[in-house]
Amino acid sequence: MPNVKLTYFDLRARAEPCRLLLAYAGTKYEDERLAAPWDNMAPWAALKPNTPWGQVPLLAWDGEIIAQSMACARFLAREFNLAGRTSMEMAQVDEIIDVIQDLLNAWYSLYHAKDTAGQQKFLETNIPTGMAQLEKKLESRGGQFMVG
Fold first, then answer.
1. In degrees rounded to 5, what are phi and psi of residue 60?
2. Confidence of residue 138 (pLDDT cuts 50, 70, 90)
3. What digits encode the pLDDT tens for the residues 81-128?
4. pTM
5. Percentage of the chain with pLDDT > 90?
6. What is the pLDDT of residue 22?
7. Distances (CA, A) of 107 to 34, 61, 89, 103, 112
8. Distances, alpha carbon 123 to alpha carbons 12, 31, 112, 117, 131, in Å
9. Residue 1 above 90 pLDDT?
């Protein structure tokens, strides 16, 4: 069993896919949760200069550090045989993940800009449209799984 440590803020945001993958696989890991920067900046300020890209999450896997949330999640999915069995299935997995990531990134931009009108429009139009598109893709692939 590998030695695994996931480092992120005590939030569900960008590290949550990794936490879910690790839980699904039943992998024991150290879940290092930093205080949210708006609660206590000191832990993040101390760690940030020692990260590869000045960001978290960080996934340590047997001493190797992987940064960038989606790189970490894709690595775990491959390790746990959840990333597709063929090149086509792998591309289909990436397609669905990227659609969801696009929605999340758009939301984060509106949230951090404190654009309440944009947030409301996003919730009323982008989310229903995105969910309908995902549902249509699910139905086109048999209705039970997005891939496989």
1. -100, 125
2. very high
3. 999 999 999 999 999 999 999 999 898 888 888 999 999 999 999 999
4. 0.85
5. 90
6. 98
7. 23, 30, 27, 6, 9
8. 19, 31, 15, 10, 11
9. no
Angle between helices 16-25 and 69-79 (to 10 degrees): 10
Among residues 33, 86, 85, which one has the least CA distance to residue 58?
Answer: 33
Q: Which two tokens stand for residue 54?
A: 């000045």
Residue indicated by tokens 């893709």: 137
Residue with the two structure tokens 């999450």: 57
Hey, CA dihedral for 148, 128, 111, 13, is it positive or negative? negative
Three-state SS sequence of the chain? CCCEEEEEECCCCCCHHHHHHHHHHCCCCEEEEECCCCCCCHHHHHHHHHCCCCCCCEEEECCEEEECHHHHHHHHHHHCCCCCCCHHHHHHHHHHHHHHHHHHHHHHHHHHCCCHHHHHHHHHHHHHHHHHHHHHHHHHCCCCCCCC
Taking the alpha carbons of 55, 59, 64, 66 in that order, is the dihedral positive or negative?
A: negative
